[in-house]
Amino acid sequence: MRGGPHRDVLKDWAGHGNRIAEAIRNQPEPTGNWPSDKLFRAGFFTFCSRNRLLNALTGMGIPSAANPVALVSEKDSEVLLAGVARGVANPAAGVFGPESVTWRINRESALFLGAARAALLQLAHPWVAAAIAQHSTVLDRPIVRFHNTFRVVFTMVFGSLDQALGAARYLYSLHTRIRGEMPEGVAGWRRGTPYQANEIGALRWVYATLVETAVMAYEWALGPLSGVERERYYTESKVLAGLFGIPAAALPEDWEAFLAYNRAMHDSDALGVSSGAREMAHKLMAGAGSWIHPPHWYRALTAAWMPPRFCKQFGLEVDGRAVDRAHRIFSGIYRGLPAPLRFTGPWREAQGRLAGRRAGYLTRLSNRFWIGEELMPFAT
Asked: In angstroms, rounded to a whole number, what is the distance separating the alpha carbons of residues 345 and 158?
């Protein structure tokens, strides 16, 4: 194993991944208030300074004899889902509801601006790239992965409680079948290293790309959130993480620590772009398998939002003038867009559900764009 942020923490973190999973398994009937005292007693945060915490969070995803992976079992997942359910006041409104910052951000079609960034950062995790190559048929149709991701995430966010839990159980079941070995050495990963999708470090990284990128896209289109709003959004996102199978104790404490975790990951050898990931990225940015072909300004915006290291590794073209020009035009027209264009179909479907209305034609059409189906799935 190469150096990087992992070398100094492997000895200290021997066994901690398994202790976290064990703490979850030993958790009594959930109260809905994560993280629990028992998880803190598991030692995930308490012995770390801020800097060592960031290193530990970054390095935890590297499996080795000294640092076992922390896998999410079905029981672990069900404990988390029970905690989420206990915190829901109105099951019809779902996990978050119309007053949440999560609904306010995720209803915006501007989120599509960050879709490529989130996808590329996920591909920069060698586990994710290997899993897609070995267990998926979307290599030549990146839009299918987009639909698969947003179908699950938007149902967790905007679906009823039953739909959100159904999406979470579907995702967990899907991930149980995704395991294998690294086909090549990439960054700090050796060829032959085993991977599993239901591993907390890998799940955390995918979740982090979605949460951070959503805020970037929202603020680019509509201006900055306040510090309070960002903090509230991040606190709500920890509930979303529970639906992914990630306990709150495995997440940075607040928004500032979350951003620091992302920066640490960007600089670490937990991430690195493989040849397969680079090929998938080029197909994604070319709109392969779809009628949607990203224009130059969109590709430039994606590059501008990527850490410089990954711009180089993915071979992205940086064009600041194109981004500035696009921002002037976009910000001038976005707020005035008609609701069917500005707001996502799943949000409109949720609004109709709460008002006792069936989804109309425009909502179903928008849903087909965002999730590839006319209605959010997992309805009972």
From this structure: 10
